[in-house]
Amino acid sequence: MDTNGYPQVFQKRGSVLQLRFGPWTGVRFSGFPSKPNPIYTYDFVFNEKEVYSIFHLINNSIMSRVYLSSEGNEMRLNWIDPAQGWMPYLVTTVDMCAQYGLCGAYGICNINSSPACSCMEGFEPIFPVQWIAGNWSGGCQREKSLNCGNEDAFRKLSGVKLPDTRHSWYDLRTGLRKIAVKRLSETSTQGLDEFMNEVRCIHRLQHRNLVKLLGFYA
C-alpha cells in the first residue's frame, strides 16, 4: 500500500515498481477486475489514523489465504476438502496490462489487442523502431501540436484505470467530496509544457454550466 499521496496498491521487486493496481474507487481498487465472487468481499479503510484493506469471507466454512509466490504473484488459495490441499482461486497479475508503465505516456494497453499497446487517437510513438520491436515504454507524442482551434475537443475514454495518485494532495475534511490534485514533478513524463497547453485550452472554454474550473492535464 503506497501512501505517498492518495493511497493505492503497488507491487514492487525491491525498489522497482512492477505492477500498479490503482487507488480505491469506493467499490474496488481500480486495477482489479470488477467481477463479483461467492467467496469473499473486500473493503478499504482510510482515515486520519489508519489505512488498510480487509477481506471478509462470505461463507465462514471456507478456509482461504493469500500469499506472495516466489515469482512475485499475489495468489489467493482456498482449502478443498476432497483434494485435501490448497487450490488456486485468484492470481492478481491478471494480464500484462497490469505491468507498471508498459505502454508509456499517452499509451493505451488493451489485453484483447495484439500488440497490447497502442497510442491514443491523434498520437504516435516517440520511438517507432523500438515500438515495432515490442518496447513500448517510450510512450507516444502528439501528431500535431495542440493549438486550441475549432478541431480540438475533449474525448471520453471508458473502462480505464484511474491515474497514478502518487505525489497527489487530498483533504479528508471534505467528507464524501474527496479532492485529489496531481502535482507534476521535474521527471514527469507528461511534462510541464503539455500541462500549460491544456490549461490554455481550458481557459478559452465558455459554458454556462461550468461551475468551477481548476484545470487538468492529460
Short key terms for the protein model shown above:
mainly beta; three-stranded antiparallel β-sheet; two-stranded antiparallel sheet; 13 strands; disordered C terminus; S_locus_glycoprot_dom; disulfide bond; transferase activity; Kinase-like_dom_sf; S-locus glycoprotein domain-containing protein
Characterization of the model:
- It is a single chain.
- The protein has helices spanning 128-133, 192-203; strands spanning 8-13, 16-23, 40-46, 51-57, 64-68, 74-80, 85-91, 107-109, 117-119, 123-125, 140-142, 168-170, 180-182.
- The protein starts with 7 loop residues before the first strand and ends in a 15-residue tail after the last helix.
- It contains two helices and 13 strands, in the order E-E-E-E-E-E-E-E-E-E-H-E-E-E-H.
- The protein is mainly beta and 218 residues long.
- It has a domain at 1-31 and 34-93.
- The longest helix has 12 residues, at 192-203.
- Strands 5-6-7 form a three-stranded antiparallel beta sheet, with no helix packed on it. A two-stranded antiparallel sheet has the order 1-2. A two-stranded antiparallel ribbon has the order 3-4.
- A hairpin with a 4-residue loop joins strand 6 (74-80) and strand 7 (85-91).
